């Protein structure tokens, strides 16, 4: 550990906690010399996948079109818009058609998945037919929902289709939690509604399993100061019911209003270590790749549970996906993820192939490994466990730069987290998009959107 720490200090990059140096020292022994990968996208997806990019997320309803008004939500609640009408179904189908077009350079289809998001996508009355249409094109549909409408089993049957992925919120599971959940979401009776919806989803999956069919259920739980105390019980509920837990650290809102709800780092580490020990003891078959678990496997997985944005789930969206926004500027702006600010084009003005080409040309996302700055650029865990730079949206929301490091990393010393001179570049020199869309200026560039 001392040798590793000394080498960082000599390079004036001593950004990290003692836990970081301890883990890196051990992992170096296990894995030998560290090989710097080009990127997750290049090493693991572009060469091996059947599609050029993994996921196309489409906000099919306006960001504010939702039955809930969660206090920890990253959408700016004071956002103004002239219209929140859902996107016309024909327009969405056209986008899906484009997603399966063949890339002119690689010969691969553009995308493998379509994520339906918002706002609340079930408020789009044509959602069931859009899911069916996506499946008919050979794509995997992902529905990200608050599940209010799935409390009606007839509706749940229309969207819980074989081959889909249902991503739903999770209830807090006790009487006091019910009250708190309803208060936080500003939706009276939400916990009971959600419990009914989840039971409907599980019932439908059981019926499909009986005839050899299935769909995936992912439980989304936002970790904030308000929710942390309920998280462990909710995690156990997921494991017992075959729900894949996706417990994500709260993302800073677009207007910074929820910053005070960010959970403490010690509390986060205590929770995530507790969840890891529970999984290791009760569900080792779910978290380890082999029945013969070695000490290094346990350590690697333990570190994975501590990374952001969600435990044991590194986010590669900036590299492997595109997110199509529907906000106060209207529908169509295409970004690398919901938390980014550099547009690659607009689907009401550009083809999806043109947007993909622009994303690749921007390079700071498709070649994130090269252009990321700050502690993430020298962190060996980026490669040893593939954390992909934490939450790139959080980094951009905090420092207004797509190249910045993630301030919510649990292995980063407290004094550096909000230090812009350490975490983000002083200017855009060397950034491949600086001539046309400096990320420090978060302005809609008409030259790009034409």
Automatic annotation (TrEMBL):
<keyword id="KW-0411">Iron-sulfur</keyword>
<protein>
    <submittedName>
        <fullName>Radical SAM domain-containing protein</fullName>
    </submittedName>
</protein>
<dbReference type="InterPro" id="IPR058240">
    <property type="entry name" value="rSAM_sf"/>
</dbReference>
<dbReference type="InterPro" id="IPR007197">
    <property type="entry name" value="rSAM"/>
</dbReference>
<dbReference type="InterPro" id="IPR050377">
    <property type="entry name" value="Radical_SAM_PqqE_MftC-like"/>
</dbReference>
<dbReference type="GO" id="GO:0003824">
    <property type="term" value="F:catalytic activity"/>
</dbReference>
<dbReference type="GO" id="GO:0046872">
    <property type="term" value="F:metal ion binding"/>
</dbReference>
<keyword id="KW-0949">S-adenosyl-L-methionine</keyword>
<feature type="domain" description="Radical SAM core">
    <location>
        <begin position="60"/>
        <end position="200"/>
    </location>
</feature>
<dbReference type="InterPro" id="IPR013785">
    <property type="entry name" value="Aldolase_TIM"/>
</dbReference>
<dbReference type="Pfam" id="PF04055">
    <property type="entry name" value="Radical_SAM"/>
</dbReference>
<keyword id="KW-0479">Metal-binding</keyword>
<keyword id="KW-0408">Iron</keyword>
<dbReference type="GO" id="GO:0051536">
    <property type="term" value="F:iron-sulfur cluster binding"/>
</dbReference>
């Amino acid at each position: 550990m001392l040798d590793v720490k000394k080498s960082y200090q000599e390079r004036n990059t001593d950004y990290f906690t003692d836990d970081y140096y301890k883990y890196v020292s051990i992992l170096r022994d296990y894995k030998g010399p560290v090989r710097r990968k080009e990127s997750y996208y290049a090493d693991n997806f572009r060469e091996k996948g059947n599609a050029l990019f993994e996921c196309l997320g489409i906000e099919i309803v306006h960001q504010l079109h939702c039955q809930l008004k969660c206090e920890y939500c990253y959408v700016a609640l004071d956002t103004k818009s002239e219209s929140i009408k859902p996107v016309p179904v024909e327009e969405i189908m056209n986008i899906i058609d484009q997603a399966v077009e063949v890339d002119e350079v690689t010969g691969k289809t553009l995308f493998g998945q379509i994520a339906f998001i918002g706002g609340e996508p079930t408020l789009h009355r044509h959602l069931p037919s859009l899911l069916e249409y996506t499946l008919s094109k050979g794509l995997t549909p992902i529905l990200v929902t608050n599940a209010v409408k799935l409390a009606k089993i007839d509706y749940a049957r229309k969207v819980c289709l074989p081959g889909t992925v249902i991503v739903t919120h999770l209830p807090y599971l006790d009487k006091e939690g019910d009250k708190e959940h309803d208060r936080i979401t500003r939706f009276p009776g939400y916990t009971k509604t959600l419990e009914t919806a989840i039971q409907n989803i599980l019932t439908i999956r059981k019926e499909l399993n009986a005839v050899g069919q299935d769909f995936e259920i992912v439980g989304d739980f936002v970790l904030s100061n308000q929710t942390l105390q309920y998280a462990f019980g909710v995690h156990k509920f997921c494991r017992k019911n075959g729900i894949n837990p996706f417990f994500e650290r709260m993302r800073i809102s677009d207007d910074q209003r929820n910053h005070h709800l960010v959970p403490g780092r010690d509390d986060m580490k205590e929770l995530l270590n507790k969840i890891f020990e529970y999984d290791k003891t009760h569900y080792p078959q779910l978290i380890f790749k082999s029945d013969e678990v070695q000490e290094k496997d346990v350590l690697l997985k333990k570190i994975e549970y501590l990374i952001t944005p969600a435990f044991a789930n590194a986010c590669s969206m900036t590299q492997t996906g595109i997110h199509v926004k529907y906000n106060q500027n209207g529908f169509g702006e295409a970004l690398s993820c919901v938390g980014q600010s550099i547009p690659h084009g607009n689907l009401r003005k550009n083809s999806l192939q043109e947007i993909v080409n622009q994303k690749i040309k921007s390079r700071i996302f498709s070649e994130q490994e090269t252009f990321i700055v700050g502690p993430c650029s020298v962190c060996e865990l980026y490669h040893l466990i593939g954390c992909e730079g934490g939450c790139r949206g959080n980094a951009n929301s905090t420092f207004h730069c797509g190249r910045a490091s993630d301030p919510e990393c649990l292995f980063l010393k407290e004094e550096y987290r909000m230090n812009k001179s350490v975490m983000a570049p002083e200017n855009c020199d060397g950034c491949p998009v600086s001539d046309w869309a400096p990320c420090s200026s978060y302005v809609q560039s008409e030259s790009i959107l034409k």
